[in-house]
Amino acid sequence: MQIRLFKPQDAEQIAQLFHATVREVNIRDYSSSQVAAWAPDDINFRDWAKICSQRFTYVAEDEGIVAGFGELESNGHIDCFYCHKNYQRMGVGSKIYAAIEAKAYELGINRLYVEASITAKRFFLNKGFSIITEQQVERRGETFINYAMEKVLITN
Asked: pLDDT tens across 34-44, in order?
């Protein structure tokens, strides 16, 4: 398993991974209409190559397969953070998160924050994040519960 920065040729696998993860993993915590709005049938609803290239997007690659990815913005916001359904609970997310946190320290970012799904909340709590608030957000006509969370990074 290699953790590396995003390459434009990763975009298609990342789009498919996002779609499949939301539809097959997050369905445990959200309704079918919510996951359909979150991950629409058009997997290219987002310009994956452009957005991932504009951020510090870390990719976990296992022999050519994208096993997970996470996006860090320069202000400390973690946007998309997903692991392939076949790589859940195998440490992939922890490795991606470690790369993100190391980059945040390198950039002098003193606070990481994320809007975590019900599914991802425990992962981020285990990484030292605190819940700021439970919130309701709307995507494509559906309302979702997620959690605004943050972690203060201690710099020397």
From this structure: 999 999 888 88
